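User: Hey, quick favor. My workstation is busy. Could you predict this chain's structure for me?
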Amino acid sequence: MQDLRYWWDSSIAWVNSHWLQICIAIAAGLIIYFLLSMIRTFALKRAQSAPGQFTLTDIVGRVIHKTKSLVLAIISIRLVAGYAQPPALVLQIIQFVFTVAVVMQVAIWVREIVLGLIQRRAAEGHNETLSNAMGIIRLLISVALFAIAAIVILDNMGVNVTGLVAGLGIGGIAIGLAAQGIFSDLFASLSIIFDRPFRVGQTIKYDTSIATVERIGLKSTHLRSINGELLVISNTNLLSKEITNYANLHRRRVQYAIGVIYQTKPEMLRALPELLKAQVTGEANEFVRSSFLGFGPSSLDFELVVDVHSDEYNEVIAARTEIGIRLFEELTRAGYDFAYPTQTTFTAAPDGTMILPYAESVTMKAPKTPPAAKPA
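Assistant: No problem, here it is.
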């Protein structure tokens, strides 16, 4: 009671001795408050009048809208408190309230900025998964930011927060280990959403499967294979392997392996690359190369490589089919024979001498007739 009585007497004495400074400080504080309110209202109207949703201007408008009038009033009081020369206890109370208000307001601003950027990302990609996950994302961001804000406030009050931070760290590690699988898939889902290695409706190759992405969830992704099966793969496992995305290809490479028989004449072999090149026609087709590959077991091997400039896989298949049929027609017309697996068997006698059938290099001679006997 004595401390309370002392504080009351000091306050009365302060008011009596500094009433003019207090009046001036109150007037200045009101002016500052109204100026800050006018600036907030003007900036909010400008932000809301800008077209578009989830733009940077819209995010700024949301941040301004979350600026509380109480915070503006506390800022105004803090700016003019020193002029009135209040007692030490009153000044400490003003500083404490100012710290709490500013720290909480900054946490709200940061939350709105982060959520606005995430929603903007979701709106750009029309991502239904991210839109559905905004509830848990908002919760996680809010818990993290306000926990940091509470630690900052306690630290400004002179509380030793080392033990608290260590406890929160240990608790976070324990929760992370307990829900490792869930958080792993959740962060993998966010990685898919933000990095966009694929989108819903695109065809990808995962491991040995080729499938179309049907849904990207918080824990798993649904793929529809080319055979019709539904593949449900956890997001962590999905990102742990190489993924080939077949969407938005500017060109697709088509290769033809062509084998002709060993009996083909050398001049026909020299003319074959140009003949193959001449079959690549069409605006969407680009010749890459045609060349001799090597000596195969049953054929002389050539290759033709063509780039088809099209995003549609059906158009690529049609171009590949047309070029293949044209190759067959022209090679047949030019007298080339396509090779197929063949074997030649040679038969030998026990002494190693070749016996028929084989290609005879020496004309066989008939045995000589023995000379006739002379008459006696």
